[in-house]
Amino acid sequence: MTRFFITGSGTGVGKTFVTCELVRALRRSGRHTRALKPLITGFDPGAAADSDTGLLLAAMEEELVPVSIGAISPWRFTEPISPDMAAAHEGRRLDAAEIAAFCRYAAPGAEDGVLLVEGIGGVMVPLNDRETVLDWMVALGWPVLLVTGSSLGTLSHTLTAVEAIRTRALALAGIVISESPESPVPPEETAESLRRFVREATVAVLPRPASPDDMAAVVGMLG
């Protein structure tokens, strides 16, 4: 079984878009694939279909019902704010080890199955008063797929995220540049700049909409 953690250089860079496209591409190739979004904020049960959780369920062709929602997103908070704040406002506390344990036991049964775990926000988003998403990633120890955009500031945000991942000795499987609505330069130029600083991983551009050919390089990162 293949397992990956999908994180971002920040909020709104396209993690869910990339995860959904990966799910569809892997399923088309015949591989049993499951995606989790264990932690989500800004979740409105009345608009669940438009949430990250709803989009992942649609990609997996699973019914949008409470049991399915809870199975991939057990930690759901109403306010669209950082998870540490959202949890505190509801009198709850998040724990990286507990979330990681959930991820480990939610894997596909097939030997050649793929499990994709989508994080929340960027690498350093706080989970509580001492832990961040990075601690969750370290607790799992899985290869990391880093998603970033192509908007202004992407280079600094991405390289900062890469450095954080390196300092905790996590394997960087690849960087996916999810094309932003507004890009100051062509995304491929951004990719070339990142490749000069990140030698250990593939850097791929994923335009919107993404074609099967566009997805080939991203799927290749998963082995």
At a glance:
With 223 residues, the chain is of the alpha/beta class. It is 39% helix and 18% strand.
Give a written overview of the molecule.
By secondary structure, the chain is of the alpha/beta class. Helix 7 (154-167) packs parallel to helix 8. 39% of the residues lie in helices and 18% in strands. The model has no long low-confidence stretch (mean pLDDT 95). It contains nine helices and eight strands. The protein has a six-stranded parallel β-sheet, sandwiched between helices. It has a two-stranded parallel sheet with strand order 3-4. The chain has helices at 15-28, 52-59, 66-72, 83-89, 96-104, 133-140, 154-167, 187-197, 212-220; strands spanning 2-8, 33-36, 39-40, 75-76, 114-122, 144-148, 172-178, 202-206. Helix 8 links the parallel strand 7 and strand 8 (202-206). The radius of gyration is 16 Å and the shape is globular.
